[in-house]
Specification:
It contains 19 helices and no strands. The protein has 493 residues and is mainly α. The chain is globular and about 70 Å long. The two termini are 33 Å apart.
């Protein structure tokens, strides 16, 4: 295999590269961000993956989701177990869908091309990297800016009344300033790329242990013991409850839906792994331990705070804001902000930047992609989506319905159709020449058929009331259905 100017050869230790020779890929019009990563370009060890996802678990929206789980009828112990079980499903998806990136050093956009074709990859890439990623980036920024607003208010109470009745499309001046500050920090972290993110998560990881374990200890003491937390039952009057098995599936689907976008584009991170073992061990251990801590801490903090203050409080920010210990409030909010930054970088801004680069490879590189995605995330005014709780859940279900089928097809193609083999020379084709005989050229019709059918089925509950439960399991149904349909279409030939 020949090593060109851009370092095309894939000779990393422990990773089997079973394709033919790759020649002059760097001369075919692809920018450097899309090229396969060589051994000397790969810097992520299992520790990096461990800290990467540890920081992404503990964020404000995830705590809000657990508050909703408590009203589904399961006991606190069962909710904890369901969360841990969900982490194993997420870890499995991350590891399995990350193997192509780890083996060949390719980013998500090229992994997607190997499944859907050169033209076919554009639509699922746009939906994941542009629509889902940018919308989530904005929503995460806004949610965390509410925590920043609390933090600023602790030091400068008058800040909360700045601007009087000023209103910018539904947001006051203090909120707009807090959002802009936090948005800017996230964009800067995104511009730094993987190297900055690795350093950031390395600092964040020990803080997570200190803060969230400390908050859990406080909550257990506030509740009068862990037994009181396990025995707690919220007021379910007027609330629809479901069978335990269905609730387990709903929780798993919700957790997986949160990770739907990262699980589809995980190659953007596994392409940097030093070895296959690093990504498998690091991701698996990080997600499992992260969710064990999160399961115990989230349930304990929310229930402990509710018992202590005598009000069913499912917003972790309100619980922290009521603390009388100012240093503790400051530390907790800072860590919550940092975890949101970690989540936003890994799951949203990085994939969005790479997808913009893939859609316009000759005009947009990674850093330009970050800036463009950042500006769009601001312009869409994400606080407007937070005005209506029902619209947010609709958005989440739709994300699961859109990305679930994509993940299902990607897994079916790589493991059962391609049998874990990708020809990089064909994948990185010179599109200016006639490549109609190239297996990756054009549109993979079977992939589109499977994706569209699964998408229509999994999203049907949003429009047909009798099928509402289908949307509550949108990712599970969409992923499983597209997987099965695609295999039927491809293997029958």
């Amino acid at each position: 295999m020949e090593t060109g100017k851009k370092g095309i050869a894939l000779l990393e230790k422990g990773i089997d590269v079973s394709t033919g020779e790759v020649e002059n890929i760097s001369q075919r019009g692809y920018n450097e961000d899309l090229l396969p990563k060589t051994e000397d370009q790969r810097s992520m060890s299992w520790k990096n993956y461990f800290t990467l996802w540890m920081g992404s678990v503990h964020n404000i929206p995830n705590y809000a989701a657990v508050g909703g789980f408590l009203f589904l009828g399961l006991s606190p112990a069962n909710i904890m177990f369901a969360l841990v079980l969900s982490s194993l499903v997420v870890a499995g998806l991350m590891i399995l869908n990350g193997k192509a990136g780890a083996k060949y050093g390719i980013p998500f956009s090229m992994h997607l091309r190997s499944t859907y074709g050169t033209l076919g990859a554009k639509l699922p890439g746009f939906l994941r990297g542009i629509v889902a990623a940018i919308a989530w980036f904005g929503l995460q920024n806004y949610t965390a800016s509410l925590a920043l607003l609390i933090l600023i208010g602790k030091f400068w109470p008058g800040f909360l009344t700045l601007g009087g009745n000023f209103n910018f499309f539904g947001i006051g001046l203090p909120g707009l300033i807090a959002f802009t500050i936090f948005w800017g920090i996230n964009v800067l972290i995104g511009l730094g790329g993987g190297k900055v993110l690795n350093k950031f998560t390395a600092i964040l990881n020990p803080l997570i242990y200190v803060v969230f374990i400390g908050m859990t200890v406080w909550a257990i003491n506030a509740a009068g013991g862990f037994g009181n937390i396990l025995a707690y039952r919220p007021n379910l009057e007027g609330v629809t409850t479901y069978s335990p098995i269905l609730v387990y599936l709903m929780i798993i689907n919700s957790v997986v839906a949160v990770w739907a976008a990262p699980s589809s584009s995980v190659a953007d991170f596994t392409q940097n792994t030093k070895s296959m073992k690093d990504q498998v061990f690091g991701q698996g251990l990080g997600l499992f331990i992260g969710y064990v801590i999160f399961a115990v801490s989230s349930v304990s903090i929310l229930i402990g705070g509710s018992i202590y203050y005598g009000v069913e409080e499912w917003n972790v920010l309100n619980i922290v804001n009521n603390w009388g210990n100012l240093p503790a409030v400051i530390l907790c909010i800072i860590v919550l902000l940092m975890t949101t930054i970690s989540t936003n970088a890994t799951g949203n801004i990085v994939p969005a930047a790479y997808q913009l680069s893939a859609l316009f490879p000759k005009k947009i590189n990674y850093k330009k992609g970050v800036l463009i995605a950042g500006v769009i995330s601001y312009v869409i005014m994400p606080w407007k989506l937070m005005e209506n709780q029902e619209s947010i859940y609709t958005f989440l279900n739709m994300i699961g319905a859109v990305i679930g089928p994509v993940v299902g097809v990607m897994l079916a193609q790589y493991y059962f159709v391609a049998k874990q083999k990708i020809n990089l020379d064909d994948l990185y084709m010179d599109e200016e020449n006639n490549k109609s005989n190239n297996a990756y050229y054009g549109v993979n019709k079977a992939a589109y058929i499977a994706t569209i059918i699964a998408l229509v089925v999994s999203i049907s509950g949003e429009f047909i009331s009798s099928l509402k439960m289908v949307s509550s399991l949108s990712f599970i149904i969409g992923c499983g259905l597209s997987f099965a349909i695609y295999l039927l279409l491809k293997l029958k030939k």
